[in-house]
Write a structure and sequence with these properties.
Radius of gyration: 17 Å
Largest sheet: 5 strands, mixed
Number of strands: 5
Strand order of the largest sheet: 3-2-1-4-5
Number of helices: 6
């Protein structure tokens, strides 16, 4: 009986983790969520190229990327997203655009800091982040 209860409890905890895919990033990372119909969407490809062009700046600001599409998605490190995680992200931050791109910046506190249905230039993203009080504190700490 104890093993059964342990098994059910473990499955419940695992389900809760997949139901809240951004929870592990809370207070650790800023999350960028890109929603597009497919990976082949032109503006999505442009945004991804901008993202990958400045990896040091992305890392310095503790950013992670989630890519959500009609038929799948990728999390940090280009790891495939579970269907339940993808569904939760679409429900919370969607809908997926029929064409184009939806860009979201989610702060370390879990709040949406920027939402745009267009490409976001990296200097604009970095400036927005650098104005945040938590980022200001991080920069002061690194200076000392």
């Amino acid at each position: 009986m104890k093993k059964f209860i342990w098994l059910v409890g473990s499955l419940f905890v695992a389900h809760l983790g997949s139901a809240q895919p951004l929870k592990p990033h809370l207070w650790k990372h800023r999350v960028v969520v890109l929603l597009a119909p497919t990976e082949q969407e032109a503006v999505f490809k442009q945004q991804l190229a901008l993202w990958t062009a400045q990896p040091e700046e992305v890392t310095d600001r503790d950013l992670v990327l989630y890519q959500i599409f009609n038929h799948g998605g990728l999390g940090p490190g280009n790891e495939p997203l579970e269907a339940t995680s993808r569904a939760v992200l679409i429900k919370k931050y969607g809908p997926l655009p029929e064409d184009g791109l939806k860009f979201l910046l989610i702060g370390k506190d879990g709040g949406v800091k920027l939402e745009k249905e267009a490409i976001v230039a990296m200097p604009e993203l970095f400036a927005r982040i650098d104005q945040m009080p938590m980022r200001q504190t991080e920069m002061r700490r690194r200076k000392n």
